[in-house]
Design a protein that fits this description.
By secondary structure, the chain is an alpha/beta fold. It has three domains: 116 residues, Rossmann fold (3-Layer(aba) Sandwich), CATH 3.40.50.720; 160 residues, NAD(P)-binding Rossmann-like Domain (Rossmann fold); 67 residues, Erythronate-4-phosphate dehydrogenase, dimerisation domain (Ribosomal Protein S8, Chain: A, domain 1), CATH 3.30.1370. The chain is 35% helix and 14% strand. It is built from 14 helices and 13 strands. The strands form three sheets. Strands 7-6-8-9-10-11 form a six-stranded parallel beta sheet. α8 links the parallel β8 and β9. α4 packs across α5, α4 packs across α11 and α5 runs antiparallel to α14. The two termini are 31 Å apart. The structure holds 1,4-dihydronicotinamide adenine dinucleotide and the ligand O=C(O)C(=O)[C@H](O)COP(=O)(O)O. The site of ligand LXYGBJRG has 9 residues, from loops.
Length: 379
């Protein structure tokens, strides 16, 4: 069996070595010819899987994407061809939530905001939005959820608000898939008209897909002096992004919100599980077999939790300013934007989830707090 996998897929060799012959490829430049002999194709978000890519292949059995987003996959075409497909829902949702939390902590310090005085409008309350809401619950920050699709689901007992209400919150955090059809398409959900209604006091965070926000409209409003604070992890037209927008962002990164080692590797693990099921093979390997120990394994706390301690704790494990600094250093300076954007992602420095660090305290409620925030949980 010939298995082709994206070179940026951690532990692919460890998980799939028993399945057959493995070939790594560069996701951005994969060609029809390269993939012609594949029985299994394992991609990440930068590979468009469609009729054109698969035109020369008549033996493909399985396509997997080690990502949450599936907007790069023509699932209709795969169904027509009878090719099995699996994604990795939720694989890096914790990582995205920790990115947003780190951004909030950094901005709170920068502007002397008390997080508990703010309300976060979470737009899209699936895996990433839910992981974020749990972390906000843990630190006592208010939030409103907007998800018209889940609002129609009788099994979901959470309270949902209309888009307009979520857009009026102090912080807006976007967690929707990129869609162009259906009752609630998200392409340019934040279009010029909606963006124009934001106030200068608000914070807008986009860590889902760039196309959910109209980047040209954002640039225009910032050039006119609008004060809205921007945290952008994702961009329209990646990797050829609108570089003029960078200097107007408070925090800006190269689509790495989901790039904790755990998040990326969980994606690989989920595809291993899916392929094992398809081939009726036992699932014998687990992520915990391969994850290295984290740099910090244990933090002991001897004082009460307050804003300063929360700030230190979050930033000790993941400080988003590292990724922001790397981005500003590399993009638009050293080489062509698209190459620099992809290189930043390919050479992303190790980052671990809160779960890799045990936090303990002699006061039980403090340990419980850290646990709720995601520290020291199962990997
Ligand atoms: N920046 C990054 O590194 C990452 C980005 N993502 C992106 O984030 C997206 C969301 O991820 P998950 O939460 O895990 O997906 P999910 O599928 O679990 O949840 C998405 C939610 O958005 C809701 N939704 C759809 N259209 C909506 C609309 N118009 N208004 C409000 N809600 C709407 C859906 O009902 C669903 O509950 C992914 O599709 C992916 O594109 C995901 C992981 C990492
Ligand atoms: O899971 C998703 O959806 C994401 O956005 C991933 O973090 C994207 O990572 P790559 O697949 O582009 O490496």
């Amino acid at each position: 069996m010939k298995i082709f996998f994206d070179e940026n897929m951690p532990f692919a060799r460890e998980f799939f070595s028993d399945f057959g012959e493995l070939t790594a490829f560069a996701g951005r430049t994969l060609t029809t010819e390269q993939v012609a002999e594949a029985d299994v194709l394992l991609v990440r978000s930068i590979t468009e899987v469609n009729q054109s890519l698969l035109a020369a292949n008549n033996k493909l059995q399985f396509v997997g994407t080690a990502t949450i987003g599936v907007d790069h996959i023509d699932q209709h075409y795969l169904r027509q061809r009878g090719i099995n497909f699996s994604a990795a829902p939720g694989c890096n949702a914790i990582s995205v939530a920790e990115y947003v939390l780190s951004s909030l902590v950094v901005l709170a310090e920068r502007y002397q905001l008390v997080l508990q005085d703010l309300t976060v409008g979470i737009i899209g309350a699936g895996n990433t939005g839910s992981r974020l809401s749990e972390k906000l619950d843990a630190i006592g920050v208010n939030y409103l959820l907007c998800d018209p699709l889940l609002a129609q689901n009788d099994n979901d007992q959470r309270e949902f608000v209309a888009l307009e209400q979520a857009l009026a919150c102090d912080v807006i955090s976007l967690h929707v898939p990129k869609t162009t059809s259906g009752d609630y398409p998200t392409y340019h959900l934040l279009n010029e008209q909606r963006l124009s209604q934001l106030s200068s006091k608000q914070i807008l965070i986009n860590a889902c897909r760039g196309e959910v926000t109209d980047n040209q409209a954002l640039l225009k409003m910032k050039q006119r002096g609008h004060g809205v604070k921007l945290v952008l992890d994702v961009w329209e037209n990646e990797p050829q992004i609108l570089t003029e927008l960078i200097s107007y962002c408070e925090i800006t990164t190269a689509h790495i919100a989901g790039y904790s080692l755990e998040g990326k590797a969980r994606g690989t693990e989920m595809l291993y599980q899916a392929l094992s099921r398809l081939l009726n093979k036992p699932v014998e390997k687990s992520l915990t077999d391969f994850l290295p120990d984290s740099g910090i394994s244990h933090i002991e706390i001897n004082q009460g939790f307050d804003e300063i301690l929360l700030n230190q704790l979050v930033k000790m494990v993941y400080d988003v300013r590292r990724d922001d600094a790397l981005f500003r250093q590399q993009i638009g300076h050293q080489q062509e934007t698209a190459l620099a954007f992809d290189l930043l992602r390919k050479t992303y420095p190790a980052r671990r989830e809160f779960s890799s660090v045990n936090v303990s305290s002699n006061q039980q409620h403090q340990s419980a707090f850290a646990h709720r925030l995601g520290f020291g949980n199962l990997r």
